[in-house]
Amino acid sequence: MFFLPSDAKFIGEVYMRLINKHRFILTKVLFIVFFAGFFANMQLKITAQEQLDTKSIDAEYDSDELLEFRISVNVDIVSLYASVVDKKNLFVSGLVQNQFRLLENGVEQKIEYFTQEDVPISMGLVLDLSNSMSGIVKQVNQSVLAFLEAGKPSDEFFLVGFGENVYVLHEYTSNIDKIRDALDHIQLTSGTHLYDAIYLSVGKAHAGSMPKKALVVITDGADRGSYYNLKALTAAIQESEVQVYCIGIDSGGYSGISTDVLKRISDETGGKAFFLRNMSALPGIVDEIAKDLRGQYGIGYSSSNTERNDMYRTIKIELTGKETNGMKVRHRSGYIAREKQR
User: What is the CATH class of 61-342?
Assistant: First the structure.
């Protein structure tokens, strides 16, 4: 309904009468309208946030267009996976909770969750596509497929390649044939943006739907030209629950393998770094990674330190009892206690 200016005086008189006669009713109406608008606005904000949270990584990244992300661990429950091996480097199963002692920043914590269960994995396969890989790419692809075939049908995995850019060669899938097809169509390029590839793949793996998250990185060279430096990459992996396994291949490439860097990345996350000169060793390495991921102990605890100060906290797990003598345990080295997200 529309009113003309000449009706303004009449409308004002009616409005004043309404206020005088029905002040209480009008107040209630205004109260309801206000809060209806308030909650509608809240819903819009929530919807907008959900849209932001569900943004996916583009299929290709140029170094000048890399997207920032933050991975946070809300520390009500800190969860991690631990691998145990004996003196012969064979995986040890069948240990029980009271054989594990967990310390955070040197303070013993109560383990509240403990299991050894082969759970589904959200997995990223990160492959070096630099030209120096040309002589070994076929063997690498065969080993990648064998690794996937050793997994569970419920696993999900994605494929990333890197050279002078970072490429998502295939999004999450549980269909190995789709990964096989993507591998058949890869093209080699120049450059080795190793740090960028791991940085972005950690975020993608962390966003996976399965309880365990992991990356397998295969490269024959040192980083050259990444947007992110090693410090930024280290910060990203410290904030994630993603285990990173690195395979460094001495293929006689241009830049050589950064053994210290690959080992540091793996150690931070509870993964492991492998180095080889003979490609005949690659199938055995990927088989060891598969067994490692399948035989881990899942551990969870509530930190006795309730302060959320964005500080890094170290985690150390010790094995107890004479029967564990000579055994070694591997796990991620710590986490950043971010303020709890609302």
Answer: alpha beta
